[in-house]
Amino acid sequence: MIEHLPALQTVLPLLAAPVCVLLRRAALVRVFAALVTWSCLAIAFSLLQEVLRNGAVSYELGGWAPPLGIEYRIDVLNAYVLVLVATMASVVIAFPLAGRELRIPKERFFLFYALFLLCLAGLLGITITGDLFNIFVFLEISSLSAYALIGLGRDRRALTAAFSYLAMGTVGGAFILIGIGLVYQMTGTLNIVDLGQRLPPVLGTRTVWMAFAFLVVGTSIKLAAFPLHQWLPNAYTYAPSVVSAFLSATATKVAYYVLVRLLFTVFGFAFVFERVQLTALLLPLSLIAMVVGSLAAIYQTDIKRLLAYSSIAQIGYMTLGLSLANLDGLTGGLVHLFNHGLIKGGLFLVVACALSRVESPRIESLRGMGKRMPWTMAAFVVGGLGLIGIPGTVGFVSKWYLVLGALDKGLYFVAFMILASSLLAVIYVWRVVEVMYFSDEEQAVERHDAPLSMLLPTWVLIGATIYFGFDTELTAGVAEKAAAYLLGGAS
Amino acid sequence: MSQEKPSVSGRQDEGVATGRRLRLLGLICMVLFLADFFVDKHGHHAWENLPGAYGFFGLLACGVLALVASLLRKFVERDEDYYD
Amino acid sequence: MIEAIPPGMILILGALILPFLGGALQRIWLVLLPVLGFVQLTLLPEGLSQSFEFFGYALNPVRVDSLSLVFAYVFYLAAFLSVVYALHLRDTVQWVSGLVYAGSAIGALFAGDLISLFVYWEITALASLFQIWARRTESAYRAGLRYLVIQVSSGVLLLAGTILHFSDTGSLEFGALGLVSMGTTLIFLAFGIKAAFPLLHGWLEDAYPEATVTGAVFLSAFTTKLAIYALARGFAGTEILVPIGALMAAFATFYALIENDLRRVLAYSLISQLGFMVVGIGVGSEMALNGTAAHAFASVLYKGLLFMAMGAVLYRTGTTRSSELGGLYASMPWTALLCLVGSASIAGLPLFSGFISKSMILAAAAENHYSLAYLVLLAASAGVVLHSGIRISYDTFFGPDQGIRCDEAPRNMRVAMGGAALLCFGLGVAPDLLYGLLPYPVDYQPYTFSHVVDQLQLIAFSVGAAVLLVRLGLYPKARSVRNLDIDWLYRSLLPGLVQFAGRQLARLKSAIEARALLGLQSAVRYVQSHHAPTGVLGDPWSIGATALWAALLLVAYLLMAYL
């Protein structure tokens, strides 16, 4: 049983999804889906434990030896990402579905849970597998279910948003597939570790260059890296808030993981940062993303769209860490992967709480909510502090490593930009806080907060943003190990 | 009783200090000046050892300060609701 | 056991309980907290040090030495007096923020590393903000925002400097730093903002007069003196501080002389007093640093007393405009008397606290041959008699009656002012009480015949000068005007420039649009029909745009093969 944990990690949710459709009864399905998701979390944690104790785990699917067969290979990096994805899924699944946010009636909620589990299976599969083509397959599973999840939004524009995400996502998927094909043509293998050994002799060829460009651009679309981010704002705005919470905390993070894996394990540090000079392109784009995303967030009138644009800026931080390509920078990028997942997931759940009492997600409609929904709004403030990067929150931990990484390279300007864009975050967080707490209406409001079943999962995430701001063993500690592993294995 | 109080800062010029009060101030200044002749001084600068040095320095300093401050007004003074 | 709690934390944690208490219990708890804190302080063993690991960096949030202790004692006194002064309020927000503010300032005094210092530094900034916002007026709100931006910038500079300093030296310890690198220079500027260095002082005279009656009392004690402590710890003997301090003492005197709002007069007078301390730090000898600590101690008390008195006037009459006040002695005799004690202290009248502290700095400056600075400080001492003596105390309470009749200050205010006045007088009579607390052994005797005579002469002749100036019509009378200061840059010039730039940009944009759109109008209309709110997407970029960008990026990556 224990040795089959890696397979269970993806097979469990994948098989559970059709079971949901068979069960049909909303309450039943919900409990079932939650149990499955929590089992996934337990598996992810035990895999992380195992990897930290005994090093990388290799699992041959169906008993076929790699490189011919498909290998599941778990090292400290993807064990860490598995834990993030499973954690976020476990919290989101516990959050009660609000009928007013979904276009399907209550008796068909089982569809939501089926899609959710499919998407989870896809995301976990991308992370756990050691096979490039397998990554593509799981990527499509997760993407297709994500399109459908977004399309569940009550607003009619959710469909258009899902459609444009689908179109752009398909372009990204196609790019990745072309890249994989080219790599396969040059090496005859799809196993990631094997590729890392067979690619170096042919790295100089045009075909590998092509493959590299297609793979990086393709994953950049999935990652919503600037300027390929335009599917993201609409998708997150019109999707049901729980879906936004789940996807913002996992989908782009997994894409980031794929990018890191491609750059460091497949192509290798020397090729990517010395031959291609990826930094020269990725660093400016990251900086622009940080500024443009934050500026755009400042001007939004819809709180979900504000959070979505803030995500684009935060993804900029993550790619910035990547482009610095040193220990502190990469640690910063990886730790922000986890930290931003917590913050943004938590904040979208706050929005879901708010939408249980407020009609529209417009910022204006939150006027005076600080008194009416004190717990919900307090959660927003704490999450917002994390976005800004106040010490004592996880945001500070990420930025600290990023600044150290930038200074280590002597890039004072970059360090300055990190701090400057934090100031922009102050502004867009403040805009919301001001409306919530400092609007003049003096009318007596009675407290009418979101139900405890919603507040509890929300505060689990928001509380975690504070907890991990102090205890950095699990986040920064593991991220640093992963970064050292990637850099050590590559150079 | 406060009605007869003189305005030293001169918000109302007609309310000049009354004689007795002024004479008292003059007396104090004189006594302090005279006392200086009996003090064994060892200041760090030569001028400090002159009798009444601090008194006259204070007098001079206040004069200069008031004049410069009046000058400063010409540059910085605006309506009270300037920023509104 | 009580030493295990970091100093200041009693106030912070205790304050957080405050909202859950009610009635008399709340007030008792409020007054008890600073007392408890003070007791804890007396039990702290000197040399105590607590440290822990924070993701790989050794932090040292508690480090007790004599320099920290002397500031901490007076901070607790100030917190106690301020709390008593604010006891009549029914505003938990002000109480909580005041205590958190005081507690974090005390915590900062004991921070042994720069990161802990930064954390407390930012908490003081945030907590103190509510002392301004609690006034609940539009102008207080705006002044508070400006205050916040500048205070937080100081924190950001401190953090940036800390990071640079750390990458230079690998040490986070907060000890003597000196102006040796980019990192320490940024830290110096961060301290300089809070210490109201010239050109960095705009926030102080802008925000303090906008604070609540009780808020200004809290504010006057902690922020600036914390900065003085930090400068003394990090930059003692940095020579540039001597001219900076002299400049502060001088220019603030000019402004104090022409200002009408009495709390703004006090704010400028506060800057001028800080100038003395900054000179002391710049001189850097043991006596100068003793003098700085002593003067900070004394000035917290007499400045607090003066702010309390003016607060009481504002509370009872609704104004602090000097041009509208006069003859208040008849209505508020106690306040008048206690305010006079404050003025006597700040002017350095023998038997009052300013006399025994200020003179140490002056003597140290002379001893180390900073003659020009000595003269400037002496002139500023004479100026103090005019603005903090005559304008604040004499004109308000004994000047020509303006017909205002009001009640005496509330009892709790009188008690707080009385306590402060008693301390001012006590320190003046028994200076050894204070000298015993100073960081270095004291070899200084304030009460020599020549010093007493010199100081009395300076004061008496300054009063005489005032009389003469009035007679000659040269005295700057109080007028209800607004005097521009450095904050004009960001309150008036900057918005103006932004507006100007915005207008020009709009003109440019419309000019471009007029030309460009002419040709494109039909095309734009076509696109609009798809992108208007009723169209397919309310979003400017479509799927096609993303595909285009993807293609462009692809080409960019490929081109890099040829670089």
Number of strands of chain C: 3
Q: In percent, how helical is the residue content of chain C?
A: over 70%
Strands of the biggest beta sheet of chain C: in what spatial order?
A: 1-2
Form type of chain C: globular
What is the helix fraction of residues of chain B, given as a range?
A: 40-55%
Rg result of chain B = 19 Å
SSE succession of chain B: HHE
Given the C-alpha coordinates, what overall shape of chain B results?
elongated
CA-based gyration radius of chain C: 27 Å
Which percent band covers the strand fraction of chain C?
under 5%
Which structural class do you get from the secondary structure elements of chain C?
mainly alpha
Provide the fold topology.
The complex is a heterotrimer of chains A (491), B (84) and C (563).
Chain A (H helix, E strand, L loop, with lengths): L4 H19 L2 H29 L2 E4 L10 E4 L1 H19 L14 H20 L3 H20 L5 H31 L4 H7 L7 H18 L7 H8 L2 H27 L1 H7 L2 H21 L4 H22 L2 H29 L13 H4 L1 H15 L5 H15 L3 H26 L14 H19 L2 H18 L1
Antiparallel strand pairs in A: 1-2
Helix pairs in contact in A: 1-2, 1-4, 2-3, 2-4, 3-4, 3-10, 3-14, 3-19, 4-5, 5-6, 5-10, 6-8, 6-9, 7-10, 8-10, 9-10, 9-13, 10-11, 10-13, 10-14, 12-13, 12-18, 13-14, 13-17, 13-18, 14-16, 14-17, 14-19, 14-20, 16-18, 16-19, 17-18, 17-19
Chain B lengths: L18 H17 L17 H24 E2 L6
Chain C lengths: L8 H9 L5 H21 L5 E6 L2 E7 L2 H20 L6 H18 L4 H20 L4 H32 L12 H13 L7 H6 L5 H9 L1 H13 L5 H18 L3 H22 L2 H32 L15 H15 L5 H15 L3 H28 L12 H19 L2 H4 L13 H24 L9 E2 L4 H44 L11 H17 L4
Antiparallel strand pairs in C: 1-2
Helix pairs in contact in C: 1-2, 1-4, 2-3, 3-4, 3-9, 3-13, 3-17, 4-5, 4-10, 5-6, 5-9, 6-7, 7-10, 9-13, 10-12, 10-13, 11-12, 11-16, 12-13, 12-15, 12-16, 13-14, 13-15, 13-17, 14-16, 14-17, 15-16, 15-17, 16-19
